Amino acid sequence: MEIYWLIAAGVLIVLEMITLGLTSIWFAGGCLVGFLAAFLGASLVVQIILCLVVSIVLLIFTRPVAEKYLNKSRTKTNVDELVGKTGKVLEEIDNRNERGKILLNGMEWTARGEADTIISKDTEVVVKEIVGAHAVVAEK
């Protein structure tokens, strides 16, 4: 019976290496505890209960800590990096008439203001969010 727990742990570890989602690794830990219980002669019911309890405890209590330290070096990609950047209004931004363009990182973007105010041409703006293909901006 012990070999099945090791196989399950191995599969979950490989799955974690492929996805890097910090989810299946905790269940691999539970499988290792199930392996130890089987090795020590516990019944199958006890092995399964230990596996589930340990997996859930690891998932709930250690995943947030691991994510905090392992994901802090992740850099934002593509559109996420534009939030907070400064751009220049190329065409007056007028939400009511659905027009406005900005120059942002050397590219032209369709822009909308945060409110129903009009932002004049050549004004510096800050990107607050990206919604679809529009940059939502506010005057700097």
List the helices and strands and how they pair.
Elements: H1 2-19, H2 24-39, H3 44-70, E1 86-94, E2 99-104, E3 107-113, E4 118-119, E5 124-131, E6 134-139
Parallel strand pairs: 3-6
Antiparallel strand pairs: 1-2, 1-4, 1-5, 2-3, 5-6
Rg to the nearest angstrom?
26 Å
First-to-last CA distance: 66 Å
Largest sheet at a glance?
A: 5 strands, mixed, barrel
Compute the number of helices. 3
Shape summary: rod-shaped
Task: Tell me roughly what share of residues is in helical segments.
Answer: 40-55%
The averaged pLDDT comes out at: 88
Number of domains: 2
Total strands:
6
Residue windows where pLDDT falls under 50 for at least 5 positions:
none
Beta-strand fraction estimate: 25-35%
Q: Can you write the helix and strand succession as a string?
A: HHHEEEEEE
Lateral strand order in the biggest sheet: 1-2-3-6-5
Structural class: alpha+beta
